[in-house]
Design goal:
- It comes from Pseudomonas veronii 1YdBTEX2.
- With 444 residues, the chain is of the alpha/beta class.
- The protein contains 14 helices and 17 strands.
- The protein is elongated.
- Helix 2 (102-119) runs antiparallel to helix 7, helix 6 (194-208) packs across helix 7 and helix 8 runs parallel beside helix 9.
- A hairpin with a 4-residue loop joins strand 16 (347-351) and strand 17.
- 40% of the residues lie in helices and 19% in strands.
- A seven-stranded mixed sheet has the order 7-4-14-15-3-16-17. It has a six-stranded antiparallel sheet with strand order 11-10-9-8-12-13.
- It has three domains: 1-93 and 291-366, Rossmann fold (3-Layer(aba) Sandwich); 97-272, no CATH class; 384-443, no CATH class.
Length: 444
């Protein structure tokens, strides 16, 4: 059964996300959250994520952010270091004792999703459309490095965990497979429950068989045929699952992730521009986890994106995942460009400042100044849309020499805008002049 979040209680207010009755035949729903800084858009997304995780009404809850300061829940259960069953996080927070850079953590979270998709029984047939939308071939190269391998030449010492089941397993690992685990990871391993520990140690054994001479793992994925290879050999599902286990607990690091762009060739995401990096990670991060009936939460996708990419983002998002059914996307943004191209059945804009829900068609292809004034309540300096309204009313009243009911309504709207303008803004002076003119003709 499809799930759809219609509204949510937040900060003692009811926030509407979609109408109660929607048009038949809508595959997916898209709601963009707008409002002034500090009103709580990111906190609202976090609250929605918590609801989705707890209720388990969705096949997946996917939280996506390219900000290092996102407020999404942790992807792991703190009590036993296991992943939350239906929750996936794509973002900059890293796992493990090595703190990766923000960009590497971001890329790694997306790469994990694509590997997870390869391991699923459903296959990766829907990913081809996503890569086509991005203008990339449906292939990717992964270079991964086990961080747990001991590099020291000194004698291997497990005395720190002597008398524990971990010490027994570590000695077995060394004796039977010549794997010595870096002592810095002993605490992490000790905190795993025994079943998870055995799963991690088995993953180390599996991965050890495909290590290169550089103690790295080099894998090539072809998503068009759902295969993963290392060298000339095909990597079975057991290898993919082993890599995922080690990535999940923070024992393996992604060193590089390369795609093939049509007309360009190989592109390392680590070397891509910040904008291209963020755009690819946003879309591929979702693609790696999404199923039918998923809830996708995206916080400020405009970060690092060129204005042109901001304009194209919603079209890219809707086209990339059009083959999925009953998914709900909720996006928080400060960008009028994000909203400008939002259109179609099932697309809405929720203003937290005003407590209103709008059909996206009302704002489609409107100018940035229109969006800033009418939707974001932040018109900025010398807003051309407000200037045009003021000049039009000025000309109308001068010509008719009277103030009609419609003119009075237009003036009231301008006076509301005036309160949001800076004192030094010439548009504020213009509105004052229009008000004086209207007052003059209204008195006669």
């Amino acid at each position: 059964m499809a799930s759809r979040l219609i509204n949510i209680d937040f900060d003692q207010k009811l926030v509407r996300l979609t109408p109660e009755n929607v048009s038949p035949g809508v595959n997916n729903w898209y709601t963009v959250l707008v409002g002034k800084n500090g009103i709580g858009k990111s906190r609202l997304l976090s609250s929605i994520a918590q609801i989705g995780i707890v209720t388990e009404d969705y096949s997946k809850v996917i939280a996506v952010s390219t900000s290092p300061f996102d407020k999404f829940p942790s992807p792991r259960n703190r009590s036993n270091n296991t992943a939350k069953a239906n929750y996936r996080y794509v973002g900059m927070r890293s796992e493990g004792i090595y703190q990766s850079s923000n960009s590497v953590s971001l890329i790694s979270s997306a790469a994990k999703g694509l590997l997870e998709k390869l391991s699923s029984e459903d296959g990766t047939h829907n990913l081809t459309a996503v890569f086509d939308s991005l203008n990339f071939r449906p292939v990717a190269d992964f270079i991964l490095k086990p961080g747990y391998l001991r590099g020291s030449r000194e004698a291997y010492d497990t005395s720190r965990v002597e008398g524990t089941s971990l010490a027994i397993e570590l000695r077995r690992l060394e004796r039977e497979h010549s794997i010595e685990v870096d002592e810095r990871y002993f605490d992490l391993l000790e905190n795993l429950h025994y079943g998870r520990l055995l799963e991690v140690l088995d993953a180390m054994v599996t991965v050890n068989k495909i290590l290169t001479t550089r103690k790295a793992i080099e894998l090539r994925a072809d998503f068009s045929i759902s295969t993963l290879t290392f060298g000339e050999f095909q990597a079975g599902r057991s290898i993919i699952l082993a890599v995922l286990v080690l990535l999940e607990v923070g024992l393996m690091r992604l060193m590089d992730f390369t795609l093939e762009k049509f007309g360009f060739g190989p592109l390392s995401l680590k070397k891509a521009s910040s904008g291209e990096q963020c755009l690819l990670v946003l879309i591929l991060g979702i693609a790696g986890h999404i199923d039918d009936n998923s809830l996708i939460l995206i916080d400020e996708p405009e970060i690092s994106l060129h204005p042109r990419w901001q304009e194209e983002f919603m079209e890219l998002l809707t086209s990339s995942f059009a083959s999925y059914q009953n998914c709900q996307f909720i996006i928080a943004t400060h960008s009028p460009q994000i909203i400008a191209r939002l259109r179609g059945h099932g697309c809405y804009i929720a203003s937290l400042s005003r407590g209103e829900l709008y059909d996206a068609e009302e704002f489609h292809d409107k100018s940035a100044d229109f969006q800033l004034a009418e939707l974001f309540d932040a018109p900025g300096i010398m807003n051309e849309y407000i200037s045009r309204l003021a000049f039009n009313l000025l000309a109308k009243v001068k010509h008719s020499k009277e103030v009609t009911a419609s003119s009075q309504a237009e003036l009231s709207r301008l006076l509301q805008f005036k309160e949001q303008l800076e004192e030094s803004d010439p548009v504020k002076e213009l509105i004052i002049s229009v008000a004086m003119l209207c007052e003059h003709y209204a008195a006669n």
